[in-house]
Amino acid sequence: xxLGNITEAKWYKKMMPKxxxxxxxxxxxxxxxxxxxxxxxxxxxxxxxxxxxxxFFFSAFEKTHEDYQWEKVYPVLGNDHMTDPANMTPAQxxxxxxxxxxxxxxxxxxxxxxxRVFGESAAKLxxxxxxxxxxxxxxxxxxxxxxNMNALNSLYELQLQASNQQMEATTVFLQNLQSSxxxxxxxxxxxxxxxxxxxxxxxxxxxxxxxxxxxx
Length: 216
What we know:
Radius of gyration: 62 Å
Number of helices: 7
Order of helices and strands: HHHHHHH
Number of strands: 0
Low-confidence stretches: none
């Protein structure tokens, strides 16, 4: 029995898919053990790779699959039959309708480009709207700042008026105080003059008493 006959046997066709899976699983497990530095890694790799090598060796003797012209046996599979709308699948009917409407890849690409440009324009419009909103908010802040400055100016004017009034009152007080000092000075001068006059009168009175009593 040759290798070609073995590859055509039923047990071979049933066993080979399982061997493919087993060999691949052993190779993966061996690689995992090797990466993690676990024991028996080399053993798993040797068994798995050997299994895969045997599988590939026997698969080289498998017969190639022939492409049969099934449309000759089943006319329904022919191209002429497939062009009949009644025998088309929904996807084929859609492709046929697009072809009749001359909707090709170029038109779809053009539509995509238009949508892309529209999206970019919408994004720029959103940026413009955002900038306008920011400018409006900035103007609102400036107006609020102007209101605050006006309020501060009004408060400053009130304080300035109060300071002027206090300054005027202080000036009047100082003037009155100066007048009082001048009056006090005049009063002191008058008192001094009165004392001088009294002293002179006392002298005159003493002289008169002396003159009236010559015996003393």
